[in-house]
Write a structure and sequence with these properties.
single chain, 3 helices, about 80 residues, 2 domains, rod-shaped, about 70% helix
C-alpha cells in the first residue's frame, strides 16, 4: 500500500465521518437544538433599559417592553404564592 493510497483512504474516511455527523445533526432535532443553544447566548442580546433582566432580539423590542412592564407584578404574584 503506497502512501498516496493511504492518504486517499484517510481523506475519504474523514469526509464520510464529517458528512455522517452533519446528517445526524440535521436528522435528530435534539442535537440540532443543542447546537443552536450552544452558540446562541442570551447575554449577547440587548437588554431593556428599564429592566436589565429582559433580553430581546432587535425585532422584538416592543414585546420586550411589554414583558418588562409586566414582570414585577408577575414576580410578586409568584412570590406570594
Amino acid at each position: 500500500m503506497t502512501v498516496q493510497h493511504f492518504i486517499k483512504i484517510a481523506t475519504v474516511s474523514t469526509f464520510a465521518l464529517v458528512a455522517a455527523g452533519c446528517v445526524a445533526v440535521v436528522a435528530v432535532p435534539m442535537l440540532r437544538h443543542y447546537l443552536v443553544a450552544l452558540f446562541n447566548d442570551p447575554r449577547d442580546l440587548p437588554v431593556v433599559e428599564s429592566d436589565t433582566r429582559v433580553h430581546f432580539e432587535p425585532e422584538a423590542r416592543a414585546c420586550a417592553l411589554d414583558v418588562a412592564a409586566l414582570l414585577p407584578a408577575a414576580l410578586a404574584r409568584v412570590e406570594a404564592a
